[in-house]
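Lab notebook, bench 4. Still working through the backlog of constructs that have no structural model yet. Next entry is a single chain of 448 residues. Request: give me the structure tokens for it.
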Amino acid sequence: MLPDDLGSCHQANCIGGALDPLPRTMADCRSIGMLLFSRLRPLARALGHPSYRNYAIGSSVSVVGTWIQRIATGWLAWELTHSGAWIGALAFMELFPSTVFGPIGGALVDRRDRLAMVKLTQGLSMLTSAAMTVAAFTGNLTIWLLAALVCTHGVIQAFAQPARLSLISNLVPREDLPVAVALNSITFNTARFIGPTIAGFIIVGGGTSWAFLANALAYAWLQVALTRVRPLTSTAPLPRDGRTTSLIVEVTEGWRYAMGHPGIGPMLWLMIVSSMLTRPVVELMPAFAGAVFKSDAHGLAQLTAAIGIGAIIGGIFLAQRDRLTGLTRLNQVSGIVVALLVLLFAATDDIHLGIVAIGIGGGAMVINGTAGQTLIQSAVAAPMRGRVLGLYGIIFRGGPALGALIMGVLSEWWGLRWPVAGGAILALCFYAWFARRLPRMARSLEGG
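Model written out:
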């Protein structure tokens, strides 16, 4: 005869009916289920808007593809040159153009149709990835051609990123915007670690050529998804007050607004710290696998898989939050955790300990990046959204590029360990100095 509830069933399998950590009745199970459903209800409501759902899925696939290509680029550069400086230089060529063109891209987003701008930039990115794929399969992808294509892709993405981030506000009602922004931040930050995981296995199984092809197909997927996007509000620029201003003046206005904001300005400085001093370890992962841990593509796959697993766990943790309260503190704590784990990763010779450290670090990086982006998106004034997100793009893309370049060049004299460890130590010092500003930041950012 079957037991009448789960508690009696589990008790029958426990010694003496000891303390039971599992739900004791079906009612308890239903209560837990309702609790989980209530936590995920805001997420389900945001995804219930078809245009946002199509865009979110397409964008997630595209970002994963971008990171697949980025890791493949680093590994191919290592195979061609065995130089940490070249790996850092390629990361710089792809990401640093955002520093030059990001503010202009952000200002254009406030002047042009956002959806049209997303379609154009993603189409150009697809063509660039297709050219890289053809050159790789035909054996014509030299280090110099690779550098040229990577730099071209970086310029395009400087205009694409603020447009993609700004488009979210047109796809959901105002009451669902915080959840949609948070979900986009989670998928965006998680994908940057899942992508390297997939890249590791593709490189092991078929080589870098197939990784480049995967990115081209990911862009094609996004282009199809964009044809099914029907914005709830117009993606055309907001009406102006009648005055005519130059693009440079608007870029300057965006900079002054962001830096003068009591929450957004300090948060951007915190992002500069994490982007330049701790995040470059991901770009330098191929060099760590080959030079520090004396491993091959299988070792790279293990390291990137650990990052991906940690990223997924970090994303799931944040997906349960439907409020801004406490997010500023969480951003700083996760940044400190990242710095400590990067320091451990740089110090160890044991690849297994390195896998554990970088895995947990991947989860903390996702929490750190997602919290920062969500707070900025929620606090920024609508007329300034494109320009502020353009500045965010500068930091998010340009910071790791500059950090990877500096660390890669320094590695030619001191190896990879000391530059990466030094960056982590500097980050810890900055976080300690910045702690006294957190209460004021939280009041400004978490008020929405």
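Notes after review: Confidence is low (pLDDT under 50) at residues 1-24, 32-37. The longest helix spans residues 50-81. Flag for follow-up if needed.
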